[in-house]
Amino acid sequence: MSGDHIVALSGGVGGAKLVLGLSHAVAPEQLTVVTNTADDFDHFGLRVCPDTDTVLYTLGGLSNTELGWGRANETWTFMKTVAALGGAEWFNLGDGDLALHVLRTEALKSGQSQTEVTAAMARSMGIAAAILPMSDQFIQTRVNTPHGQLAFQEYFVRDRCEPQVTGFEFDGIDSAVINPLLLATLEGPVRAIIIAPSNPYVSVDPILAVPGMRAAIKASGVPVIAVSPIVAGTAIKGPAAKMMDELGVPSTVVGVAEHYRGFIDGLIIDQQDATAAADIESSGMPVWVTQTVMKSLDDRIDLANTALAFADQIAGRSQSL
Amino acid sequence: MSGDHIVALSGGVGGAKLVLGLSHAVAPEQLTVVTNTADDFDHFGLRVCPDTDTVLYTLGGLSNTELGWGRANETWTFMKTVAALGGAEWFNLGDGDLALHVLRTEALKSGQSQTEVTAAMARSMGIAAAILPMSDQFIQTRVNTPHGQLAFQEYFVRDRCEPQVTGFEFDGIDSAVINPLLLATLEGPVRAIIIAPSNPYVSVDPILAVPGMRAAIKASGVPVIAVSPIVAGTAIKGPAAKMMDELGVPSTVVGVAEHYRGFIDGLIIDQQDATAAADIESSGMPVWVTQTVMKSLDDRIDLANTALAFADQIAGRSQSL
């Protein structure tokens, strides 16, 4: 059903850039962001939710733009003391960041859902968009390597994405329930569903793997537009290109198109990859070529508007059929 | 049995001053500090142990001498973020301090005992003295007031000791087990047992209320010396004098002597209270008058040496009987 509401699927830093653009391109109340929770993990007994928190910090204007992750004006006294006490140092938790993990862990233990906790934090940050964890159940990405399985953050942070990947599993996904608020949103009038330029394997795939997610998105009947996280054969951020190489998939926009084929209605690729557009279109997938590398806020808003225009064009095309 | 080992019973800041003096007056390996754990509490889902941590920070040379509590070089980004998120602000947890609470909570959940956690932290701080929580069980002081019962930290921190007290209860004390390492220490050769100038009602009494504690101390057969936390009718720190007034006990060294009568073998009082010495001695309790107000490290060491000399004198006196 067509309407004004936008649903975006996002991982962490890369996806959150486009999400910020979308929050400016439409009224923030018209934006629902579905966050990947499969890289959530328990560290020091605290529930840490990197992708959800990155979206919170980004929309709340609290991001650390120097580091490229975490909170602005962060201090690190906790980690220094952890080190002095001989505690695990491989995952950096800023002192301010820690407040989210501590309060969240306490709230979850008291019986609140991840959705409720996230909504309360968003409210206190003055965020009007809805930020919805994909599911309230605890799901954990496991990275398969030739030398065994790694927990995602072990692979991603501790081992700096160095191990070769042979595949992924999402522990707990079979018994996970799609976020009920998202289900209700997808049943209401929606204008477009945007897959942000996040890692297809470990940010977007877990969201799509939640039982009922693909069906609910498809049933909404609105265009699903993905923005390629791969530009000129490399990932702007993170291990997406390296993963594609190791999985034997071309680490190109063509590889991204193949990955999402059958599910998305259009792919946005960067102008640096313009020569690949014809190839992808000839296989039946509409392509929009634009600048997808987002440096400024204007870049983010421009890409958001482009994604919405592309979705509207595809919706119009299918209506005229 | 007489020996070189010293056992000190301590609450927080006031007691820790004398404990620091004792750690200089004898070889630190000859010092066992028994800490009050009845003001431990769970905050934000984290186990906070104010007295034990104060002793750790004091002996580890990590105390915040400006604030008079907490850690040196502390930052407060966690609390600022908690406030921004609408979390409870009444109990201040510094960013570095938080590391102890987080690591401790995780270790306790994994099955370690409070004693083991404390020993590991002491080791990492380079502390050679043994710091023993009075019990590994969770005991909580409740403060009775005319308007109902308060958890200790609610009374002490949140309500700034303003409510009138009518008495105290130590939740969990009946099923608590005396720290087995302390029991072993008390069975070995001991030179003296020193009750630091801590609050008699909420710091020392909980220690003495652990089942078997008084008997084990008495069975050691060595002098028990208390240092009065009341000087010239007021407490150097904390609500001891106010509590005595409210409980109808004279808030004087005589009141302290009465409180410990039958258990201690000698009381050290400040020179400002010298005129009370005769009164207390006439009732059969040996008294030593000295400077008990500890401003410098030398003051701490001097008072420690005085307490040990007093204990030795009393031990000699009873041997000569």
Brief overview:
By secondary structure, chain A is α/β, with parallel strands linked by helices. Chain A contains 13 helices and 14 strands.
List the helices and strands and how they pair.
The structure is a homodimer of 321-residue chains.
Chain A (H helix, E strand, L loop, with lengths): L4 E6 L2 H13 L5 E5 L5 E3 L2 E3 L1 H10 L17 H8 L10 H15 L4 H11 L5 E4 L6 E6 L2 E4 H7 L8 E5 L8 H8 L2 E6 L4 H10 L3 H8 L3 E4 L2 E2 L2 E2 L4 H7 L6 H8 L5 E5 L6 H6 L4 E4 L6 H24 L1
Parallel strand pairs in A: 1-2, 1-9, 2-5, 9-10, 10-13, 13-14
Antiparallel strand pairs in A: 3-4, 6-7, 6-8, 11-12
Q: What does this 3D model show about the protein?
A:
- Two copies of one chain form a homodimer.
- Chain A contains 13 helices and 14 strands.
- Chain A has 321 residues and is α/β, with parallel strands linked by helices.
- The first copy, chain A, has a single domain, classed as Rossmann fold, CATH 3.40.50.
- In chain A, the strands form four sheets. A seven-stranded parallel sheet of chain A has the order 5-2-1-9-10-13-14, sandwiched between helices. The first copy, chain A, has a three-stranded antiparallel sheet with strand order 7-6-8. Chain A has a two-stranded antiparallel sheet with strand order 3-4.
- In chain A, helix 1 (13-25) crosses helix 13 (297-320) and helix 4 (95-109) packs across helix 5 (114-124).
- The longest helix of chain A has 24 residues, at 297-320.
- The A-B interface holds A 44-46, 71, 73-75, 77-82, 84-87, 94-100, 102-103, 105-106, 109, 120-121, 124-125 and B 44-46, 71, 73-75, 77-82, 84-87, 94-100, 102-103, 105-106, 109, 120-121, 124-125.
